[in-house]
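lol ok so funny story. i was supposed to be doing the assay writeup but got distracted and ended up predicting the structure for this chain instead. priorities right. anyway since i did it might as well share w the group, maybe its usefull for someone
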Amino acid sequence: MTTRRILSAALLAVLLLVGCGTSASSSPAASATTAVTPAEGKQLIDSMGASLTVIDVRTPAEYAAGHLANALNLDLEGGMFSKGIATLTKGAAYMVYCHSGRRSAIAASTMAAAGFTKVYDLGGVAAWQAAGLPLVTG
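and the output, tada:
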């Protein structure tokens, strides 16, 4: 193994250890988001009603194929997400989701970093469907 590879491997190991560790001084962004299961997400929707804004961060085509009722479509990768969240109240409650959970995690982190204090990450709509929960189309 070359010296460069050894140093790269050592740096990667240190970054992974530091990045996976927890501490009492976690950033506010990390504590502003909460991952929720489909059942917990359904319970939040039912209990919070209109005070919870549900945000679908998938493309408009994915959204049209089936989304949670009353969800706001702010395409994360299409440029609408940043513009859309700039108009939202930071102290309100939001639940974000995508197809599999990758984009929703990015969206939740982005919102927390922007100062949003109540962000729930539902993960993927695929898990929502697998739990037998409904989608609407249109």
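Residues 25-130 form a domain with the Oxidized Rhodanese; domain 1 fold (CATH 3.40.250.10). Residues 3-30 have pLDDT under 50 and may be disordered.
back to the writeup now i swear
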